Records
---
Amino acid sequence: MNMFLKIKCTLSFIARLTFAVSLIMLMSSSLSVRSEDNKLDGILSISNDSDKPSIPVSSVSFLPKPNISSKSWIIVDVNSEQVLAYSNPDLKVEPASLTKILTAYLVFDAIEDKRLDTEQNVIVSEKAWRTVGSRMFLEPNKKVSISELLQGMIVQSGNDASIVLAESVSGDEDSFVYLMNREAKKIGMESSSFTNVTGLPDPRHLTTARDLSLLSISFLKKHESFLHYYKQKEFTFNGITQPNRNRLLWSDPSVDGLKTGYTDTAGYCLVSTALRGDRRILVVLLGANTEAIRTEESLRLLNWGFQNFDTLAMFEEKSSKSLEARVWEGVSDKINLRPKDPLWLSVPRGRAGDVKLIIERIDPLIAPLYKDQIIGVLQFSIDNQILKTVKLRINSSINRAGLFGRVKDIIRRWFEH
C-alpha cells in the first residue's frame, strides 16, 4: 500500500512538473514572439522617427547659409560625416578633372593590396602619350615610376599620367572605368557614371556635388596616408615644373587637398579640405565662373563651417554607461549599448545643450546577446529634427542564465505584462 502511495505521489509530482514546464514554455514563447510583418516587433521607442531622414545641420542654426557663386556646392564635416549645408547638391554636372579623385582612389587600393608599388617602373603607352588636355609631358615607350605618375596626375592633373596608371592597374582604360563605376556604386554614388579616367568631356560622364562628397569622405577615411600628394605645391618632370592648381594651398596652411577641375562646359570646380585641430571639413564646389571665384568661395565655405559649427565626441569611455538596458534570462541583468565606432556629432555653435537622444530598440532584450549585435538605432535631434542616426549595438556578449534564472525572469516578465 505504501509503495502504491509512493508511486501515486511520484506520478502526481511528475504531472505537476510537466504542467509547470509547459506553462513556462508557453509564456516564454508568447513573450518572445516576432511578427513577420515587422522584424523588430517589440520596439521600445519614444519617437517613432527611425525612418525620418537626417537634415543639414544648418537647418537648426540661427544663422543663414551663405550665398555662394557656383552652380552647386556642399559642405560636410568629415569627422561626423554630416552635411552642414548645400545648394543644388544633386544637380548632375561634368566632374572634369575631379574624376581623378576616383582614379587615384583605385590606384591607392592597388598599392595597398600590393598589386602596385610606388617605386616600380611602367612603360608609357601610345594612347597615354596622345591624350589631349592637361599633361605631365610623358614620352611614349619610356619608363616612368608609379610615384612620378601619381605626382603627375595629382599635382599637375596630367591626363597622360592618369591613363598610364589605369593601364598599370587594369591593363586598359575601359577595364579600369568598369572598376570606377563599380566602386562608385559601392560608395553610394547613385547619380554618377564615368566613361573615362581623366574627366575629359562626355555627355555620359556625370556626377553631383553630393556624390563627390561621399567619394571624398571615403577617400579621406581610407587613404589618408596618401594625402601628402595633394598638398604638394609643385612637381617637376622632364625638365618642366608645374604648380598645383589648388590655390588654397598658398592662401591657407590648414588646407591639404584635394583636387581642382575645369572644362568649358563644367566651369571651375574644386574639392577642398582643411584640417584645423582635430576637425576636418570638406567642401565640393562646382561650376564657378572663374578660377578666382572658385578659390575665394571655397575658402569662404571652409571658414564658415569651422566658425559656426562644433563637432562633439560622443560616448567616450567616461560616459559609456549612459545607454544602459535591461537584459532578461542572462547571467547579467544589464548591458551597455553603444555605436560600433567612435562617434562625432556636428551641431550649430551654441546649440550643443539642445541636443536630444532618441532610442528605438528591440524590447525585451533576451539573452544570449552577442558583442556588436545590432538591436536598434540611436538618433540625435534638435527642435524635433533628426541630425544623425547610427546603429545601436551590444557592447559585450551576455550568455544565457541557468534554468532557475531563466524561469525567474520569465515569470517576472509575465507578471509585468
Note: Residues 22-47 have pLDDT under 50 and may be disordered.
---
Amino acid sequence: MLSSRLLQVRSAPVLAVRALSLGTTVLQGKAPDMAEGNSHLLVTNVRNRLRETVGASTNWRDHQQAMAERASLSSQLAPSQESLPVRRMKDSYIEVHLPLGTQPELREKYLTYHNSVRFGRILEDLDSLAVLICYSHTKNEALQRSPLSIVTALVDKIDMRKHIIYPDCDIKFTGHVTWVGKTSIEAKMHMSQFHDGAYSPVLDATFVMVARDPENKRAAFVNPLKPEGPEEEKLFQEGEANKKRRVELSTASLLKVAPIAEERKIIHSLFLNTLDSKTVSFRSRVLPPNSVWMEDAKMKGLEICHPQERNIFNRIFGGFLMRKAYELGWANACAYGGCRPNLVAVDDILFQKPVEIGSLLLLSSQVCYTQGSYIQVRVHTEVLDPLTRQHNTTNVFHFTFSSPEEVPAILPRSYGESMLYLDGKRHFDLTMSGQ
C-alpha cells in the first residue's frame, strides 16, 4: 500500500513541462542532438501516428479494406538492403510523454485498485513505441504509406531500475534503434518519471522487431544503420552480442538438448530430498516443509480476442498479449508468495505466431523456480481453434518477481516439470547476472 504522501497529486512545474516540449531534456545521457530525429509526442497519439504510417483505419470494416489494399504496396519494397539509404541512430530517436501528473484524467486507465500504476499498461506503451521507432528508422519521405509491416518478434529484456512507479507523476519514454540486421531491428527504450523536481530512471527495455511485406507474409529489407562515435558503436556491438546470445540460448534449449551435468545433479538432488524414507520407493514422494509442488502453483486464464484489441495489421496487439500475460503472472506470484510482489525483470518474450481476431486465447501461468524471496514465473499462451480443437503456441513469457518475504520452495515431480524448473533457473540466473 502506498503511503498517503505518494497519493497526493504532484504535478510537474509548468516551466519543466515547457522545457520538455522544446526537446531540451534527453534521458540516459543522450547527446542533445539526438533529438533531431523526431519531436516527442504523447502516448495517446502513438497509435494514431502508426495508423497514419501504414494507412490503417480506426473503423473495423474500413480497417479490413485498408489492409487488403496494402497488398499493392509490395512493388515499393527494396530489392536489397544495399539499395536503401543508411540511417543514423538519431534519425529514429523519439521522446514520448505520459502526463499522469499534469493530466489527471489519464490516470484511471493506468491505476490499480491499490493506487499504483498498472505495469501491463506500460508494456503496451513500450510495444507501440518500439514499432514507431522502427518505422522512423525505415521512413521514406517519398512514400505516402510505408510498405513494411513491422511486428514484434521478441522482448529481449526489460530491467526495472526502480520498483515504485508513482501514479500521479509524469512519465517520459525515450528510445531509438541501436542495431539492425538484414530484416530485423533492435530498439532500446528508457522510461523515467518526474519526481522531486527531476526525472529519474525507472526501466530499460530492449525489443527486437522484424520487417515483413505489406501482407505480413515474408521478410523485407530494412535500412542499414551507421553508428556515429564510440557510444553508438558500443550500442551496436551490444546488439550483435545480443543476437549471438539468443542463438546460443536457442541452441542450448532444453527442448532440443539434455541438461548439462550440473543441472542433472540439481534435479537428482531434488528427487532424493523428496523421497519417503520409510518406504524407500521411487514412486513414494514426500513434500518437505515450506515447499510447494509445482503442479499446485498454476493459474490459468482465457481471452476471447475481439476486434477492439487489434493492432494496425488486423491481428491482436502484442502489447495486449503482454499485459494479459503479465497480469496473470503477477497474480500467480502474488497468490504463491501471499503478498504483493514487485517486478524485477522481463526477459525473452518470444512471439512465435500472430494471434488472429476471433481466437480463443488460453493463458497458463506456472511458478517454475524460486530462490529466497524471488519467484520466477513462466506464462505460456496458445490459441484454440474451437472447430478443429487444435492448440498452437503463440507466446512464451518469463517474469522475475521479488516478494517482501521469503517464499516457499517450488519442487517438480515429473521429468517435464524438472525441465521447467531448470529453464526457470536459467532465466533467473541470467536476470540476476545483469543486476
Note: The first helix runs from residue 4 to 7.
---
Amino acid sequence: METEPPITGRRGLRGLLSDLNPRNIEGPRLPLTVFCLVALLAGWDDTALQLALPEIKEDFGLSVTMLGVIGTITLIVTNAAGLPLGYLTDRVPKRVRLVQFGQVAANLGDVVQALAPNVGLLIVGRTLGGVSRLPNDVAQVPLLSDYYLPSSRGRVIALLRMAGGIGSLLAAPIAGYTVTVYGWRTATLMLAVMATTVACLTFLLREPRRGATDRAAAGRSEAADGTVAVERPDTEERPPPRFWEGIRVGWSIRTLRILAISSFVYSIITGLVGMVASLMAKQDLFLDPFQRSLVLEGQMVLGLLVVPFAGVLADRFMKRRPALLAAVQGVCTLGIGCLVLALGLFPSVPVYIAVNLLFSMIAGVQVPSFIILITQVLPARHRGIGLQLTAPFQLAGGVLSPALLALTDGMPLRYTLISLVPVVVVAGLIQFTAMRSVAGDVRASMEMA
C-alpha cells in the first residue's frame, strides 16, 4: 500500500475554473482529444445529404414515399444493431478496433452514396454509413470510462457532448455551402475525406485495461490526515460476459431500471413537445422560418455553454453525494414540464423564445448527466450492453407518441401542450425514486470491476 498527497478539493470560483479546464482532467490526453475530434465532424455528411434531398430526389427520380422508405430502412437497421454491438463491445479484447474500422467503413459508405449510379447502391451506402458509425457510438463511452477515473468521467463525457454540439452548429453552414458550390456528390466526397483524416487518428489509440480505473478508484481510501491510501488493484481481467448475462446484470441494477422506465415515458413526449411548439410558432405566433432559425441557433449556443458545467457538477455530486445526480434528472424533467405548461397557458413570442432557450439549457445539463449516471452504476464488464438497455424503451416511447398525439387531434395547440404536462410529471417522479439506489449501485459496480 502506498500513499499519495492529500486531495485538495478546491471550492469556490477558483476551484470551478480549475475543474472547467480540460488540462486538469486526470488521465491521458490523446483519447479524449481524438474522440472529441471525431465527434466534431460526426454527422456533417448526414447534414449535407439532408440539405441535398431535393437534388438527390431529382437525380434518381425518387418519390417522397421512396425517400421516406430509405430513411425508415436506415432507422430500423441502426436501432436493431444497438444491443448486439453493445454485447460485442463487452466481448472483444480490442474495442478500439471497433472504433477504428467502424469509422473507416462509415466514410466508405459516404463514398458509395456520392458515387451511387442507382437507388440500390444509394440505399447500400446510406445503410453502411449509418450502421458503421454505431460501433464508435456504442464503444466510445465504455472506452473513455476505462481511460479515465470515475472522478473525471463527468467532465470527459461533457467535453465529448460539447464537441458534438459544436460540430452540429458548424455542420449546417459548411455543408450547405459545399453542396451549393460543388454539388451534393462532390460535397459528400469532400466531407468524407475530412472525416477519414480525423478517423485515422483513432489508430494511435491503445486499448485500455477493462475496469482498471474502477479498480483503482475502489482501492483508494482517504485517511484522517487527508492523505489517500492506494491499494494496488488486481490487474487480472475477468472473462467477457455472455449476451444474456449482460442483460441480466444490467437489468438487476435498480438505478438503471428506473432510468430505462423513465426514458420510456420521457421519450413519448419529447418529440411531440418540439413538434407542437414548432407548429405553434408558425400557426399561432406567425414566426417565419428565418425567425425560427434564430431561436434554434440561440438554443444550440446556450445548450453548449452549460454542458461543461454539467460535467463539473456531475463529478462533484458523484464524489460527495451521488443521489443528487439522480435528483438532477428529476428536477430537470419537472422543469421541462413547467416550461411546457407556461407555453400552453401563455402562448406569445417572448414566452416561446424564453421557453425554448431555457429548454436547451436544461437539456444541456440533463442529457450528459443521464449518460454519466448510467456509466457509473454499470460494472466495467457490462458497460457496452448496459448502456444500450435504455434504447429499446426510448424507441418504444417514440413509437407510441403518435397515438398520444392522435388523442389530442383537433384540439388547439396550446391545449395539446397542456395535456402533455402530466406525462412529463410522471417521468420526473419516476426519476426521483433513483435517489435511494444510486450510491449503493455505484459501490457495487466498483466491487464487480
Note: The mean pLDDT is 81.
---
Amino acid sequence: MEDQSCSSVEIDDFDSYDHNSPWALDIGGTLIKLVYFSREDGCLENSFGNSVRLEEVGLETSSKNYPILDGKLHFKKFQTSKINECLDFIESKLLQGSCCRHQEVSGKKKLIIKATGGGAYKYADLFKEKFGVTFDKEDEMNSLVSGANFLLKAVPCEAFTYMEGRKDFVQINSSDLFPYLLVNIGSGISMIKVVGDGKFERVSGTSLGGGTLLGLGMLLTKCQSFDDLLEMSHKGDNRNIDMLVSDIYGSDYSKIGLSARTIASSFGKVIFDNKELKDYKKEDIARSLLRMISNNLAQIAYLIAMWHGKLKRIIFGGSFTRSHEYIMETISDGVEYWSKGETKAMFLRHEGFLGALGAFKSYEKHGLGSLMGHHLSEQSPVASPRPQLEQKSNGPLLVESTDAESVGCCILGSDTMKRT
C-alpha cells in the first residue's frame, strides 16, 4: 500500500507566470476547460453562482532577480455546445484587462491564448473574429500528460482510490511515479502509457466514452446535460433493465466467480419485456447506461495496462467521473475484479483540467518567470472544510479547497504569507 500521508510533497520545478495574466483553454467535444492566472484577491464565482474559497499554493523564489507574484490560478468549465457562455465570460475579463498575453509580432501587439483539444482548431477563427485573439496551439496528448504529471507531483492528496464508499488519498513518491497508464475519459477515451516527463505513448483508446453516455442518455431519457443524466442515475435501479447472473441461473455462478448481482447483459431484460420506451423509468435507463460504460471502461483499461508492461497504476482523468461515487465505484470494482485485487483504479480530484493545466504550464517554455517550487504542505482536506493558514519555517503552506470545481492558487514568495 502506498503512503497515505498527505503532509508534504516536493516539486522539482514549476516556472511561474508574468503579470500579463496568461490563459489556457482545452476545448473538447463536450466541455471547454479554462485555466487562467489573475492578481485579484478574494473568491471566484463558480459555474453555479456560488462564491468559493480557492486553493492557495505558496511557491518560493529561486532567485531574488524575479518578482514575487501575488494572485490566483482559476479553473472554470463550460459546455462546448454553449460556447457563447465561454465567450461572454472571456469578454468580461477582456474588458477588465485581465485576459491573455500580449506578444510583439511585426511591431504590433497580438493577443495570445494557449489552447489545446480539437476545438483549438475548430473554433480558432471564432475567437479571432470576436476578440482578435490568436490561439497558440499545444499538442493535446502532451498537455494531458504534462497536466497529470504536475498534479501528481505537486499537489498533495490529488490522487485517491474509491472502494466500498470510501475515498482513500494516495501519496505517490515522485521518484516512483512512472510508469503509469493515464485513461483520459472525454467524449471518447485515450489511454496513454506515461514513462516520464514528456515521455509517453498513446497505446489505445475507445469510442465508448462520455460522449457515448451522454448521446444515448439524451436519446433515451431526454436529459439536457451530462449532469442531468448523473442526477437521474442517483434515483435509478439498473436491475429493472439489465439481465443479471441471477436472472439466468437463479443464484450466483460461484464456479467461475460470478455473483448473483453480476450483469450478464446490459439492457438484456428489455428483449423479454415487450414494453415501449415510455414504459421504462428514465432513472433506471440512466443507471444502466452509466453501469454499461463504466464496466466496459474498467475492463478495457485493465487489459491495456497488462498488455503494455503489466502496469500496476491506472489513473483515470477527464471530466467523466465528476467525482460521481457510483461511476468511481463501478470502475474500481471492475479493475479490482479483473486484476484479482492486484491493481486499484486511481482518480484525480482535478480530473477534468489536465489538458488545460498542461497547456497553461507550457508558458514556462517561453521563459515567463523562474519560480522554483520548494515545499508544499497542507492539513488533511477531510479534517475540516477550511484549514487555517500558518507560516512554516521550511516554506509556505498549501491550503486545499474542498471544491475541486473551483480551484486556484496564490503564488507567493518565501517571505510573504497571504491570509484569506
Note: Residues 1-5, 7-19, 40-69, 367-420 have pLDDT under 50 and may be disordered.
